[in-house]
Specification:
29% helix; globular; Peroxisomal Thiolase, Chain A, domain 1; 13 helices; 2 domains; alpha+beta; seven-stranded antiparallel beta sheet; 503 residues; OB fold (Dihydrolipoamide Acetyltransferase, E2P)
Amino acid sequence: MTTSRTPVLVGVAQYSDRDGAPGNALSPPDMLARVGAAAMADCGGRVISIDALAVVRLFADSSPSFSSPFGSYTNLPRSMARRMGQSPGRLLYGPVGGNTPQMLVNLLADDIRHGDIDVAMVAGCESLRSQSKALKAGLALHWSEDTGDGPDTLGEETPLASPHEMAHGIELPVNVYPLFENALGAHYGRSPVDHRRQLGALMARFTQVAAVHAHAALPVARTADELITPSHENRLVAYPYTKYLSSNMFVDQAAALLLMSTDCADRSGVPASKRVHLHGSADTHEKIFVSERVDYHSSPSIRVGAARALAQAGLGVAELDPIALYSCFPAAVEMAADMIGLGHDDPRGLTLTGGLPYFGGPGNNYSMHAIAEVVGRCRSRPGSNGFVFANGGYLTKHSFGIYSTAPAQGWMRIDPAIDQIEIDAMTSPSFTEAPSGQGSIETFSVVHDRGLPAWAIVIGRLDDGRRFLSQMVDGLDALIDRPAIGRRIAVVAGHPVNRARWV
């Protein structure tokens, strides 16, 4: 039953800048402060003090590849709070991963339930569009800020790839997700050409949503053929993904959420029409390293996590609507739909934004926008059950949320370690870093350079069943639009890279 400590989401806000000149761009803390103030205003209640402020980690602090040339922030949550005139007792800076927004909601909602805090805000942003344009224009953006302290972080960062994996190219997501995509195509029993057509059909529906979304970075409806056909504007980046099928990170976007206890919402005068409750949640992760996965066409952690959230909410898949699935690349959508029990062409739709390739992929923060959309839809359709699936890494880390305006019946965060026991116990193929001999292709990704095939990541299985990683540089055309999974190859161990060739 609902109690005074029941957490409730009361405020949401989004911000985007598609066309502004880079010299006029808002800095990350300025964007955060804008959406934070807007989320507080959205609750419809009195001005309140925030007890805990959690900010999703910037890409600049997530990967050296995205380090900002315009400075950094010693404590981004503090910088945001000062601009808002707030002094939270708890400042959190989230870990790397697109699952982070939903995970932070789950975590802070439980802190509210336990009475540790009354009011929490979660916010995140990216400004890679303006940063990139400023660099090209020779402009300097003075975005550094030293507050003299640092935020709390949530545990130690776990590397998502081993040195052996990184040596073989398992690093950039755009090169890794095709490993899952090509495995999925074979699992579905499709020819490579037909599978690409199906990818186009899936993501064309996403473009239609983005085309009418006020915050979408690329509000253009495209046909399936437009999405999958290589061109000067739509080059192949890693087979079977073209640019139009890949996450668009170069956006200026921000979002924020405001949560509080039911008692605090009552005292603050938050109208019932603004209140959305968390009914189900889960946080799970796959076996961390890609080379350790059970297979490449399924995700046990999505299946387990979704089942947990649904059971907690007392709902079946048929009762979910609206639905927002993470969508950095088509494989994330397909695999999530498969594991949850949704059709790829479900009439309810699988996105509320248009997805990361078309709405925009603001670093680790995309799912904050998905949650904001779900909250808005639930408010407009009281009693509906909104579902959010958030993904981080290489289909590695997953968080789930089920939302409704109906009062929650005793929601609590289940310790993620409980579900993780089942996932970790699943058997994976044995693995060798020094393979030699013959085997077959388990899955692959052909990395392109300026639209042309350059090299391939090949995950194979030796004849004795052991899995291995390798690269292939010759005969790449035989991997493109031709059946390749299961084909025979030979592999030679090398340092640091194993080499595969056709038999």
